[in-house]
Design brief:
By secondary structure, the chain is mostly helical. It is 62% helix and 5% strand. It folds into 3 domains: 3-186, Glutaredoxin (3-Layer(aba) Sandwich), CATH 3.40.30; 197-356 and 406-419 and 480-612, Na+/H+ antiporter like fold (Up-down Bundle); 426-476. The protein has helices spanning 40-56, 76-87, 92-101, 108-117, 122-128, 132-147, 169-177, 180-192, 197-213, 218-226, 242-268, 274-298, 315-325, 331-355, 364-380, 387-403, 410-417, 426-449, 461-476, 480-504, 518-546, 558-567, 573-582, 587-612, and strands at 18-21, 29-35, 60-66, 155-158, 161-163, 228-231, 238-241. 40% of the residues are buried.
């Protein structure tokens, strides 16, 4: 989910917004609702909000913004204008309550009757309700809602963050009362919604490793990352250092996400259309060959294997910087960089597999092929449970590792074979969920009518039946591949990559650059990232556009495109892994890693400055969600 739809873009304005309660302030919990007076779910939620106001008193500030769905609820837009007309007489909340108190449909006569019932000046009301300014006011709320990702009502924001939790009284009360657990969760979610939060964690982990490796704590750092951990009956069946477990074990999760992203882009994303896909594909290839060429022009013999360290583009860092730049970065440029980075990831996987295998034992490839065959069979048999795929992936990981190839590539195989499903029709799922909830409501109503406790329904068979049906309907909205991606993505961003960065970037900056080939390695990597990457991308673009086999993004100026090309020189832990693979157990690996870090920093600064100087901020139309 994009951060655009999570964080409230236009803050609550007591001078414009309708606020009920203590008012907006630090001591109040602000609950903002995008609502529709004819929406049945808004009407159900209103009872919960009334209970919350009674429970929290002045600690709750309730704000209402209009989001009428005229197509689904004819007359909703007029009801919103009626509430605004009442607001001109200082009676918004009375009209708000009167409209919700009347059962649909709400015809014009019903609305006028509600206005009379609260004592409005009807002559003034009749004049105001058709005022074009009120139509504009309702349209402004609609536009604001769409810009915030609102597609249906009610949509709830709590203290500026969209609330996606349950709508029952106790769930919402726990979220609003801010116990320690809820505060930690809200803070973590707010941080995760920052465009560059994952990149920031990665940077902190890398910086911490650099600091530790260049202080008196260096020996402790080396002891930790070099410590060996064995798995097996004797703990020697599979024994790797902490750094190796991070690069081969944890990075399997990262490569799983890379594989899922590649698969999605090839089936339903920016790589489906040929003309849209040609440019980033060509640029990714050229963006790999050009820095490799620059490196090899400076390095021969023993230092030549380090060419790959300058070829990887860090998608998390590059897109994070583009997100931080906001409207300075055109949407088309973001899509282009994302598509290029996906193809770049494919090339990185192939480079690791082809050029840097360890001691090769081909017999284990038979076991690897058997594991892949099992995953293919599971996919063809439409097995949607996750554990058989995980078991096959574990077998594949062990076989690939024993064969001498980077076992993290097993994650890509899992991504290829995880089953997908066509998007379900909403109607049957709605009927299933509605039937389950209606049955629960009926059982609770009967329990209360009989003088019992409605909570006792939890012990009845109907509760288990309804729970299983709701879980099944919810699970059907996501394919197994989608569920895995959602579950794994936060772990990859905030645990896997930072741990790998911490284990891989702890190099002593005081390395001896006078060693044979050290300066050439450093210069080759830095120039490859800062000069080679953008040069290859720009030359490929010029050739492809001139040949009319591809086009540049429509909303992107030449300078902005150059800035995006420079940002592609920002590398990631894969670049560090390549540096380590190119020079195993050599001091040159530390030099190459320093080159990756230095080149990435220079590319980030130059790319951001180029984009900032590229012209005015791009005006982007808000997302057009369903009204």
């Amino acid at each position: 989910m994009s951060s655009q739809g999570v964080r409230l873009q236009r803050p609550i304005d007591p001078g414009r917004d309708h606020v009920r309660g203590a008012g907006v302030g630090r001591d109040a919990v602000n609950v903002l609702i995008y609502g529709d007076y004819l929406c049945p779910y808004c009407r159900r939620l209103r009872g919960v909000l009334d209970r919350l106001r009674q429970a929290m008193g002045e600690r709750l500030a309730y704000v209402f913004r209009h989001f009428p769905n005229e197509r689904a609820h004819p007359g909703a837009e007029f009801a919103s204008r009626a509430a605004e007309a009442a607001a001109r007489q200082g009676r918004f909340w009375e009209m708000h309550d009167a409209l919700y108190a009347r059962e649909p449909p709400l015809t014009r006569e019903h609305v006028l009757e509600a206005a009379r019932s609260i004592g409005l000046d009807m002559d003034r009301f009749d004049h105001d309700v058709d005022d074009p300014q009120l139509r504009e006011r309702v349209e402004e709320d609609l536009a604001d809602g769409r810009a915030n990702g609102v597609t249906g009502t009610p949509t709830i924001f709590v203290d500026g963050q969209r609330y996606d939790g349950a709508w029952d009284f106790y769930s919402m009360l726990e979220a609003l009362e801010r116990p320690v657990g809820a505060r930690v969760q809200r803070t973590a979610r707010a941080f995760a919604n920052l465009p560059a939060s994952a990149g920031l964690v990665l940077l902190i982990a890398a910086a911490a490793a650099l600091v530790l490796a260049n202080t008196p704590l260096a020996s402790l750092y080396d002891h930790v990352v070099d410590a060996r951990i064995g798995v097996g009956v004797t703990t020697r069946a599979l024994s790797l250092s902490v750094a190796d477990w991070c690069s081969e074990g944890l990075l399997t999760v990262f490569f799983l996400l890379v594989g899922l992203e590649i698969r999605r882009e090839m089936t339903a994303g920016s790589l489906t259309d040929r003309r849209a896909a040609v440019l980033p594909v060509l640029c990714a290839v050229a963006g790999t060959l050009a820095p490799a060429g620059i490196y090899l022009a400076l390095n021969h013999g023993a230092t030549a294997p380090g060419w790959s360290a300058a070829t990887s583009t860090g998608i998390a860092f590059a897109l994070g910087i583009l997100a931080v730049l906001g409207r300075r970065a055109p949407v088309g440029l973001k899509v282009f960089v994302a598509a290029l980075a996906v193809v770049d990831d494919i090339l990185s996987v192939l480079i690791l597999a082809i050029f840097y295998p360890r001691d090769f034992h081909g017999v284990w490839l038979i076991a690897a092929a058997a594991a892949i065959g099992l995953m293919l069979a599971l996919n063809r048999w439409r097995v949607y449970a996750g554990w058989p795929y995980l078991a096959a992936t574990l077998g594949l990981w062990l076989a690939v590792h024993a064969a001498g190839v980077n076992a993290a590539l097993a994650g890509v195989a899992l991504a290829i074979f995880l089953p997908t499903r066509p998007a379900p029709a909403a109607g049957p799922l709605l009927a299933q969920a509605a039937t389950a909830l209606a049955a629960l409501e009926h059982a609770q109503t009967e329990a209360r009518g009989a003088g019992g406790d409605s909570a006792s329904v939890e012990q009845e068979p109907i509760w288990d039946w309804a729970s299983r049906n709701l879980s099944a309907a919810s699970a059907r909205l996501l394919s197994p591949a989608d569920r895995v991606e959602r579950a794994v993505a936060p772990w990859s961003a905030y645990v896997v990559l930072p741990l790998f960065a911490f284990s891989a970037t702890g190099v002593a900056v005081g390395v001896d650059l006078r060693a044979p080939g050290a300066l050439h390695v450093l210069a080759g990597v830095v120039l490859g990232l800062v000069v080679g990457k953008p040069l290859g991308i720009l030359l490929a673009t010029l050739a492809a556009v001139s040949a009319r086999i591809a086009v540049m993004p429509d909303d992107t100026s030449l300078r902005a495109f150059i800035g995006g090309a420079v940002l592609c020189g920002v590398s990631d832990p894969v670049g560090l892994l390549m540096a380590e693979s190119a020079f195993p157990h050599q001091d040159l690996a530390a030099v190459a890693k320093i080159g990756v870090l230095a080149g990435s920093a220079v590319a980030a600064v130059l790319g951001a400055l180029t984009l900032v100087s590229s012209g005015k901020a791009v005006t982007q139309a808000p997302a057009q969600g369903a009204a």
